[in-house]
Amino acid sequence: MQSPAFLQQLQTAVRQLHATVETELQPLPDAVLNRKPRPDGWSVLECLEHLNRYARYYLPALTKALNGRPAAAPAAEVRYSWLGRKSLDLVRPDNGRQHKTVKHMNPSGSQLHRAVLTEFLQHQAELLALLASARTTNLNRRTVPVEFFRLLKLRVGETLEFVVRHQERHLQQVLRAAQTAAPALAV
């Protein structure tokens, strides 16, 4: 895909994620936000906290990658490495397989509050700014270390897409958790 269209697609997805959290999740009562759909599942806030933990790593890493070197001429086409393709396949929203998360990214059992929603929305604004600044960068540079094994690196474009697709995947989980919790609490 061409770099400008690629970035525009990601920006549209991030705006949609932001709007969904604002319109569908912020109005929910705390009891719904904290209710687990099943004992081994994550509540709405746990899902969002998981995404916040990833954002706390990847957004600064992307900022460093985008600002750390002189701007290279943007590549016309976004290309994928084997690691990028594999990473994206794991987090695609249409991939129905469940995956175990690394321990420090698992928020299960955490005491969470509405501040998780606020932080998530702040991360979305920061991600939009990064996507805008990426327009002048070669997205095919390998400059972002993978969170759980920093010797491996993803290209900037792959990392941006990974973050967005991971968020889309978990927002689907969030909406299912909210749908399950609301009727259960109404009884």
TrEMBL record:
InterPro entries noted in UniProt: DinB-like, DinB/YfiT-like
Source species, domain of life: Bacteria
SUPFAM superfamilies given in the database record = DinB/YfiT-like putative metalloenzymes
DinB-like domain residues: 18-174
Protein name, entry field: DinB family protein
The organism encoding this protein is Hymenobacter gummosus
Q: Provide the taxonomic classification.
A: Bacteria, Pseudomonadati, Bacteroidota, Cytophagia, Cytophagales
